[in-house]
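Complex record, two chains
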Amino acid sequence: MKAPLIEMRGVSKEYRGVYAVKNVDFSLYEGETHALLGENGAGKSTLTKMIAGVTQRSNGTITLDGEVIDFQNPAEALERGIAMVFQETSLVPSMTVAQNLYLGEEKLFNRLRGLYIAAQQFLSSLNFNVDPWASVSTLGAAQKQLVEIARAVRLNARVIIFDEPTATLTPEEKHYFFSLIDRLRKRGVSIVFISHALEEALAISDRITILRDGELVASNKTETFDRDSIIASMVGRSLSDELFYHKRSDEEARKPGPKVLSVENLSMGSMVRNNSFSLYAGQVTGLFGLIGSGRTETAKIIAGVLKRNIFHGGELRFMGRSVRYRQPHRAVMDGIVYVSEDRKAEGFFEQMSIAENIYMGHIVTDPPAGGIASASTQRKVTEEWSRLLHIRAINPNARIVELSGGNQQKVVIAKSLTQKPRLVIFDEPTRGVDVGAIAEIHKVIQGLADSGIAVLVISSYLPEILVLSDRILVSRMGRVVEEFSPGEATEEKIMYAAVH
Amino acid sequence: MSEIGTAQAGGRATARFRVTQESIVFLIAVVFFAGFSILLPGFLDADNILSLIQNVSILGILGIAMGIVVIGRGIDLAMVTTMAMSTAWTIALMNGGTGPVSAVLLGLGFAAVVGLVIGFLVAYVEIPAIFATLAMSTVIYGFGRLALVDLDVIYLPEDAAWLRALSGQFLGIPLPVIWFAAVALAAFAFLRFTRRGRFIFAMGDNREAARITGIPVRPMTVLQYLISSLIAFVAGMITASLLATVNIRVAQSTMVYDVILVVVLGGIGLSGGKGGVRNVVVGTLLIGILLNGMTILDMSFTVQNLVKGAVLLIAIIVDSIANPRDEQTAQQGDI
């Protein structure tokens, strides 16, 4: 067999002590189509970004044609023929398709007509139905993706990396995309594509590599895999992880209390489509979904962070009352709080102390007498929640940025829980949190349900869903597609529902 | 220090840094003061010091209004225009025979409407504050010149003794200084001790987090511009009293940049969420001394503007180095 075109040996990527990719070997041969599979956070994107020079590796070696490479930025990688097509497009929205295709190659006097004719010919040669005159901002997600792909093809790359290329495409466009991949393969281009769609991977790839928790699980010819073995590799975990060891039975699950929230035919843009489900008091409802399944968007619509379309948005009923929140303020006052997945961007106030952060939530729903902030109430509230959530800090007036991720997350949670909610939505409550804090946060979540509050936990970590939920919902393509009781749910079943 | 201090309750390292930044400005102010006192004849004259303090008071009052807006991560470029037009209208009404109470109320009402409109544009129409206030400044000026006042310079009516008394003295202290102190104290209490003051800090710190926490960010934004417009009216009335005239051409001067200069120089970051009234006071001191000294030095208006512009630029550069805007690594997709 020929030597691989790109070879990674013992490559790791470390973010502040946390490994996104750990000691992975990966080979890409000339002219092969290589599928990269794994759960959210398995390290797929990070691995490919290291090849394309978007991020730099912490350890290990990467060779191209036997020569060690160390790209500092994507431009260097491109020079050597490695292009990456991102999940989030990197097009200039205000320019036309043709201008985007030829971005960076404009001549001093750009003959626009020639540019558009060339673009038109090029796009039709790829069978892409995109108008070169259209401004990119007017295109849908799928068409943007096509332009992005066309740009990579045009640059004559030897290696093209696609990050979730088909997530936004329609079946017809997917068909074109696969035939394009086929033609590229015949031209000797090597392709890496990251996907959640197992069928696609099985259908078009020559080889499959599976990552889990940043580590290599399996890498072999596609013929040696089938759907079940892939799913088993993707989710199989060592059960030594005690935190997530306990598998709940149906008997342990809490019985549903009164219906707190019902979502009917909720829609917004392309992310949420006719989503319907209900949440009950005194229960933890787990919501699992892969990226792009619309779970965060759905949660944000419920909490008023995003506004849904007034005509086609569907209906939300909270405590039996039809509601449509334009701002989170009303939702919070009604008792719906949302704990964001991104605590730095949407969670805490970084210039404030722990106490001020927690108290900020308190004074929204519980205005102090005369509108005067009370130092003693602030102290009392902070003490109470620091005790309940085991927030560890030298002193409550320390700035929140000085805390560890787990303690920051606890402060953000405390800020929301002081608002006396009736429905709490946790979006990835333990992302970037140390193991000890995970256990404590889980305990808090269980405690909330025990006290009769409706809890929705969104997570892309299957064991977390399984260990917490009294009821499991699976979201795919903008809607809840399946519901499991804890007894019947297994990682395989959930994953199967999420990807098909 | 009070436990509910918002900006100052930071960790020790940052607290030391902040004190340093503030005290550097304060130190420079002291150096300038000493230098001018020695080198410039007439600088230390009682008359000059008096006028320095008075001029500084107006700037300081406007600076406090601007400070409240900037802490909430906004900016009000229409402030000086609002000040000139609302005051000019009040005085013009009085000259036209309207009673002082209704004239003042109408002027105050005009300022309030301006503040509400700007707040609406920024909070609900979601126009960036810098453009909304810049455009509104022109609109207010044009509207005022067209419909409210027909002269550029309006003199105070002869019989308005109470108006002149606004800039008198109390126990030897010029009243404008006392007004400045009063506005500063009120703003200090508002920002530090009230629920809404807290909200303004939260919005400037992290607007999205503030929104998700349930803070009514839109009404709060309107409130900020309402406050700043009302304070501008107050500053306008004091100016009118001091100068015995209202010159609406001040709206087209660089005064609003002086106000921003005071705020930024004092250490209120333009990225919002930090600082307080103390910063405005320190910034006001330095700018006041600088402007007064340059006037005595008989620097031309052009040179003065050049110096002010340069100082503002330096202050903003230092600000952006000391308080870098959030450099969030955009972690899109999964890792």
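Note: The longest strand of chain B covers residues 153-155.
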